[in-house]
Amino acid sequence: MATKDDRPSDDPELENARGLNRRDFVKKGVVVGLGSAALLETAEAEAEVRPSGAEQTVWHYEADIVIAGGGCAGLTAAIRAMDLGASVLVVDQNFDLGGRMLHSAARMSLGGGDPVQLRDMRGESDREGLITVAPIEDPEELDDSIELLFTDITDWSVVDPKGQAPYRYNERELARAWAENCPATRQFLIDNYVRFSRVSGTHGGGGLSRARLATCFLMLGDKTDIKAGTITVEDAGVADRERSSLFAPLRMGNGSRMVGPNAVVNGAALSRSLEFSAREKGIEFMLHRRFDEIIREEPVAGRVLGIRAHYSPRHHPETGELLQSLWQNGNIDEQRETVNIRARQAVILASGGHAGNPEVRSMFYPALREPAFPTSGRALLGSGGQDGSALIAGLRVGANLAGMQQNLSYFTTFHISTRLGTRDAYTGMMPGHPTFGFRGSAGFNVGRAGFEELIAVNQVGKRFFNEVRLPARPGPSAYPGDRGAPGRGLDHTPVDWRNCRKEWVREMYDYDHGLHAALALNEGSEPPDYFSGPIWGVFDQDAVDRNGWELRYPFVSDNGYFFQADTIEDLAEKIHAGNEFQRVPLRYLAETVGTWNGYAETGVDPEFEREVDAPMSRIATPPFYALSIMIIWHDSYGGLRVNGRQQVVDMQGQVIPSLYAGGEADGGFNKHGLGKGHVHGYIAGTHSVEEPSI
Length: 694
Prior knowledge:
alpha+beta, FAD/NAD(P)-binding domain, Flavocytochrome C3, Chain A, domain 1, 3 domains, 9-stranded mixed beta sheet, 4-stranded mixed beta sheet, 17 helices, 26 strands, globular
């Protein structure tokens, strides 16, 4: 158990004296004792773990609520359950808390007349008076209600351009619960030290109700103090543009437009604030521990009793030292291979989606079986991140699935990155964070215009698409109509899908941006194991000189995703030998470059008509370069079927007693962004404590 000095005090004067800055609230080893996650000190606790049935299970730890996953849904559920009087133990396979929330932009669209909407309608500041800019959004646009929000995401007759078509396939019970809990969730986050900027548009579409985006922020100051809302430039990673920090894996960005001078924004402002509150309240954490199995009274019947989890230590890629979380108070130092954790009231599954598991994701979208196309945040989360653990464990105990088809329908699910030459093209992580070595390099962000300077080739070295159009994402699946909405000049019939005329549907599903061309690359593969593979951007020294590109560490490195050579032939050989996913030689690369140079001389590209999009330049001046072009899978939308209380249901539609799920672990509610996970965690935490205790 943590000592009194290890934990934040309830005395505000004492806390003020301490400052509770990062250096006061960090690196304090804790040995767990009796408490909310009581170690069962019995002879049986040391016995061999027997997985053959619930009646034979040896329990090593217990708590009222056991949560698998310490990301946005898991942390929110944990704090909510703790606030309602439950003891809570959170298990996470990573060495640190926050999950993908920690490397996000911390942009969160909620609605229903939530506190941030109301604040900005009135032109008020935040509670500390840190916001000094005027409201960005028109107050009329912020007028909202729960009913309007629910209508927005369920009514096919709403043809507003921000209304996402896939929302209409959402399960209405989940949509209703989300709409009803949006305002309370925003207030809950505010009460747990999260600070929100002015409302600014939407994240992934908002629709009629304008479920509004607000970004989480901290203020640059002399010390890192979550309660005061301040962070040092070093912890924010802004002291050096080429370094990150332990506090913030990604360098925090400028939030002055939405907040005021010296505001910085990104996932650390959200994740660390929630983590601080959770540790302050006494929630306990078992890190380096992968959730494996749900323990139920019978294999597919009866009550859920707990979980089984195995030790999954992550070590520094260079030093070999065991990686440690930023803050240590509340951590349980448990290194047994396998432990069983008893849940006296409920288990909440919040361990993320399945985007990092090619075998699972290919069940529902065969094109994404290729392991060369990783999920976002792979370096930070490790190989076990987003591996479908909740989905797989749920199926083993009889759980149902929902919304698996929705992985195909949302425009941010997967896309071609403009950050080239890295294992993890989603984040802007720099050296300074211990996981940077897993990434190898930060990647070189060329932007969309940079694709004018290269040719993109497939796994055998052939061009396959107009390069300039490759990084262009499809727009939201909106109903164009007359850009109106009910009550704003649009002539429509409420709750009538026939408002969506055929020409609108064609516009909604215009995916002519090269993604499918990239996924379908099977040249060079052998039957029956057809495969796609890496995509390479190829250019020469003249392109580097024209653009002033800095091809140096930490942006590129000798990590298998960046190559250079004095001849195209040598470049092809280096790629084949040096990239882990390059199964076949790029035997056509020299021929492709020669053909391209001919096109550049004539100004005509007969293969892909690139001459109408961008200038063409010869690739003729050594050294020659190749950078990997990544396809990133961002979100998982399908998962375990749940009801409006976030209870998992079985194949017969019946609730599995004492089992809940939230965030990307559940399905049936296609909603992009952090708002889904936090609301689902809030709901799960609320209702899980109502379960009878055993």
